[in-house]
Amino acid sequence: MSTRMNSKAKAGGPKEDLAISFVNTAAWRLRAAREERLPDAHAFLRWMAANVTGDSQHLEAIRERWHRIPDEADSLYETIIALREAIYEVLVARLANRPAPVAAFDFFNGLLARSADGIRLKGEAGEIIWSIDGASDIDLLRPVITSAAALMTGPKAHRVRQCQDERGCGWLFIDESRALNRRWCSMGDCGNRAKARRHYLRSRAD
Prior knowledge:
Layout: H1 7-11, H2 18-23, E1 26-27, E2 35-36, H3 41-51, H4 56-68, H5 70-95, H6 102-112, E3 120-124, E4 127-131, H7 142-153, E5 160-162, E6 172-174, H8 187-205
Antiparallel strand pairs: 1-2, 3-4, 5-6
Helix pairs in contact: 4-5, 5-6
Protein backbone atom coordinates (compact mmCIF):
# COMPACT_ATOMS: atom_id res chain seq x y z
CA MET A 1 0.00 0.00 0.00
CA SER A 2 1.38 3.40 -0.91
CA THR A 3 2.32 5.84 1.80
CA ARG A 4 0.38 9.09 1.99
CA MET A 5 2.11 12.42 2.42
CA ASN A 6 0.36 14.87 4.70
CA SER A 7 -1.99 17.35 3.06
CA LYS A 8 0.28 20.30 3.64
CA ALA A 9 3.14 18.60 1.82
CA LYS A 10 0.91 17.50 -1.04
CA ALA A 11 -0.83 20.77 -1.63
CA GLY A 12 2.03 23.07 -0.75
CA GLY A 13 -0.47 25.30 1.01
CA PRO A 14 -0.97 26.58 4.55
CA LYS A 15 -1.19 24.25 7.52
CA GLU A 16 -4.63 22.69 7.72
CA ASP A 17 -7.07 22.69 10.62
CA LEU A 18 -5.62 20.78 13.58
CA ALA A 19 -8.64 18.50 14.02
CA ILE A 20 -8.64 17.65 10.31
CA SER A 21 -4.91 16.89 10.40
CA PHE A 22 -5.49 14.62 13.40
CA VAL A 23 -8.36 12.71 11.75
CA ASN A 24 -6.26 12.29 8.61
CA THR A 25 -3.59 10.35 10.47
CA ALA A 26 -5.67 7.42 9.24
CA ALA A 27 -5.12 7.23 5.47
CA TRP A 28 -7.17 5.32 2.88
CA ARG A 29 -10.15 5.27 5.22
CA LEU A 30 -12.53 3.96 2.58
CA ARG A 31 -10.41 0.93 1.74
CA ALA A 32 -10.76 -2.44 3.41
CA ALA A 33 -7.32 -1.98 4.96
CA ARG A 34 -6.44 1.59 5.85
CA GLU A 35 -2.98 2.97 6.60
CA GLU A 36 -2.31 3.86 10.24
CA ARG A 37 -0.14 6.95 10.63
CA LEU A 38 -0.18 6.81 14.45
CA PRO A 39 0.96 3.26 15.22
CA ASP A 40 1.74 4.07 18.86
CA ALA A 41 1.71 6.86 21.43
CA HIS A 42 5.25 7.93 20.53
CA ALA A 43 4.06 8.60 16.97
CA PHE A 44 1.39 10.86 18.47
CA LEU A 45 4.08 12.83 20.30
CA ARG A 46 5.92 13.29 17.02
CA TRP A 47 2.68 14.43 15.40
CA MET A 48 2.14 16.88 18.27
CA ALA A 49 5.63 18.31 17.86
CA ALA A 50 5.02 18.85 14.14
CA ASN A 51 1.48 20.26 14.36
CA VAL A 52 0.98 21.98 17.71
CA THR A 53 2.89 25.04 18.87
CA GLY A 54 3.94 23.89 22.31
CA ASP A 55 6.76 23.34 24.77
CA SER A 56 9.14 20.81 23.19
CA GLN A 57 11.00 20.25 26.47
CA HIS A 58 7.87 18.90 28.14
CA LEU A 59 7.12 16.63 25.19
CA GLU A 60 10.64 15.25 25.44
CA ALA A 61 10.18 14.64 29.17
CA ILE A 62 6.99 12.69 28.46
CA ARG A 63 8.74 10.69 25.75
CA GLU A 64 11.53 9.73 28.15
CA ARG A 65 9.04 8.73 30.85
CA TRP A 66 7.09 6.56 28.41
CA HIS A 67 10.28 4.71 27.52
CA ARG A 68 10.67 3.92 31.22
CA ILE A 69 6.96 3.17 31.82
CA PRO A 70 5.53 1.86 28.52
CA ASP A 71 2.19 0.92 30.12
CA GLU A 72 1.39 4.63 30.47
CA ALA A 73 1.94 5.18 26.76
CA ASP A 74 -0.13 2.14 25.85
CA SER A 75 -3.01 3.30 28.02
CA LEU A 76 -3.09 6.77 26.47
CA TYR A 77 -2.78 5.36 22.96
CA GLU A 78 -6.19 3.71 23.26
CA THR A 79 -7.72 7.08 24.12
CA ILE A 80 -5.87 8.83 21.28
CA ILE A 81 -7.30 6.48 18.66
CA ALA A 82 -10.76 6.47 20.22
CA LEU A 83 -10.80 10.27 20.16
CA ARG A 84 -9.70 10.38 16.53
CA GLU A 85 -12.43 7.97 15.48
CA ALA A 86 -15.08 9.81 17.49
CA ILE A 87 -14.20 13.11 15.79
CA TYR A 88 -14.27 11.41 12.40
CA GLU A 89 -17.67 9.85 13.03
CA VAL A 90 -19.20 13.13 14.20
CA LEU A 91 -17.83 15.11 11.23
CA VAL A 92 -18.84 12.50 8.65
CA ALA A 93 -22.33 12.24 10.15
CA ARG A 94 -22.77 15.99 9.81
CA LEU A 95 -21.50 15.81 6.25
CA ALA A 96 -24.13 13.15 5.49
CA ASN A 97 -26.82 15.22 7.23
CA ARG A 98 -27.56 12.52 9.78
CA PRO A 99 -27.29 12.38 13.58
CA ALA A 100 -23.86 11.58 14.93
CA PRO A 101 -23.51 8.22 16.69
CA VAL A 102 -24.40 8.62 20.35
CA ALA A 103 -21.34 6.68 21.52
CA ALA A 104 -19.00 8.94 19.53
CA PHE A 105 -20.64 12.09 20.90
CA ASP A 106 -20.59 10.79 24.46
CA PHE A 107 -16.91 9.87 24.26
CA PHE A 108 -15.96 13.22 22.76
CA ASN A 109 -18.05 15.17 25.27
CA GLY A 110 -16.53 13.23 28.14
CA LEU A 111 -13.07 14.43 27.13
CA LEU A 112 -14.34 17.93 26.30
CA ALA A 113 -15.83 18.32 29.79
CA ARG A 114 -12.75 16.95 31.53
CA SER A 115 -10.82 19.45 33.60
CA ALA A 116 -7.32 20.16 32.27
CA ASP A 117 -5.76 22.11 35.13
CA GLY A 118 -2.18 21.43 34.04
CA ILE A 119 -2.46 22.81 30.51
CA ARG A 120 -2.66 26.45 29.55
CA LEU A 121 -1.56 29.02 27.00
CA LYS A 122 1.50 31.17 27.55
CA GLY A 123 3.48 33.74 25.62
CA GLU A 124 7.00 32.85 24.57
CA ALA A 125 9.35 34.61 22.12
CA GLY A 126 6.54 36.55 20.52
CA GLU A 127 4.28 33.50 20.11
CA ILE A 128 1.41 32.00 22.09
CA ILE A 129 2.03 28.32 22.77
CA TRP A 130 0.39 25.44 24.60
CA SER A 131 2.10 24.79 27.93
CA ILE A 132 1.74 21.26 29.31
CA ASP A 133 3.94 21.64 32.37
CA GLY A 134 2.28 19.59 35.11
CA ALA A 135 -0.46 18.29 32.83
CA SER A 136 -1.52 14.66 32.87
CA ASP A 137 -0.89 12.57 29.78
CA ILE A 138 -4.50 12.70 28.68
CA ASP A 139 -4.37 16.50 28.74
CA LEU A 140 -2.04 16.29 25.74
CA LEU A 141 -5.25 15.86 23.74
CA ARG A 142 -6.65 19.23 24.77
CA PRO A 143 -5.44 21.18 21.67
CA VAL A 144 -7.07 18.59 19.40
CA ILE A 145 -10.30 18.53 21.41
CA THR A 146 -10.52 22.32 21.37
CA SER A 147 -9.88 22.42 17.63
CA ALA A 148 -12.49 19.74 16.92
CA ALA A 149 -15.17 21.45 19.04
CA ALA A 150 -14.52 24.75 17.25
CA LEU A 151 -14.73 23.05 13.87
CA MET A 152 -17.95 21.19 14.70
CA THR A 153 -19.74 24.34 15.83
CA GLY A 154 -18.00 27.16 13.96
CA PRO A 155 -18.44 28.81 10.56
CA LYS A 156 -16.39 26.14 8.77
CA ALA A 157 -18.58 23.25 9.93
CA HIS A 158 -20.60 23.26 6.71
CA ARG A 159 -17.41 23.27 4.63
CA VAL A 160 -16.05 19.92 5.84
CA ARG A 161 -15.86 17.46 2.95
CA GLN A 162 -14.55 13.94 2.34
CA CYS A 163 -12.27 13.20 -0.59
CA GLN A 164 -14.13 11.51 -3.45
CA ASP A 165 -11.08 9.77 -4.87
CA GLU A 166 -12.11 6.40 -6.32
CA ARG A 167 -9.14 4.63 -4.74
CA GLY A 168 -10.67 5.08 -1.29
CA CYS A 169 -8.69 8.03 0.08
CA GLY A 170 -11.35 9.15 2.53
CA TRP A 171 -9.39 12.09 3.92
CA LEU A 172 -11.40 15.01 5.24
CA PHE A 173 -10.73 18.60 4.22
CA ILE A 174 -12.24 22.05 4.53
CA ASP A 175 -13.66 23.30 1.25
CA GLU A 176 -12.52 26.91 0.89
CA SER A 177 -13.71 27.22 -2.73
CA ARG A 178 -16.22 29.95 -3.51
CA ALA A 179 -18.68 27.53 -5.08
CA LEU A 180 -18.23 24.91 -2.34
CA ASN A 181 -17.67 22.27 -5.00
CA ARG A 182 -14.21 20.94 -4.21
CA ARG A 183 -14.13 17.15 -4.51
CA TRP A 184 -10.63 16.06 -3.58
CA CYS A 185 -8.33 16.48 -0.60
CA SER A 186 -5.63 17.75 -2.97
CA MET A 187 -5.57 18.62 -6.65
CA GLY A 188 -1.87 17.73 -6.65
CA ASP A 189 -2.63 14.13 -5.72
CA CYS A 190 -6.15 12.72 -5.79
CA GLY A 191 -7.52 15.41 -8.12
CA ASN A 192 -4.86 14.92 -10.78
CA ARG A 193 -5.18 11.15 -10.58
CA ALA A 194 -8.94 11.34 -11.06
CA LYS A 195 -8.57 13.65 -14.06
CA ALA A 196 -5.90 11.42 -15.57
CA ARG A 197 -8.15 8.38 -15.15
CA ARG A 198 -11.09 10.16 -16.83
CA HIS A 199 -8.81 11.19 -19.72
CA TYR A 200 -7.59 7.62 -20.09
CA LEU A 201 -11.13 6.23 -20.16
CA ARG A 202 -12.22 8.81 -22.75
CA SER A 203 -9.23 7.99 -24.96
CA ARG A 204 -10.05 4.30 -24.82
CA ALA A 205 -13.69 5.01 -25.72
CA ASP A 206 -12.55 6.94 -28.78
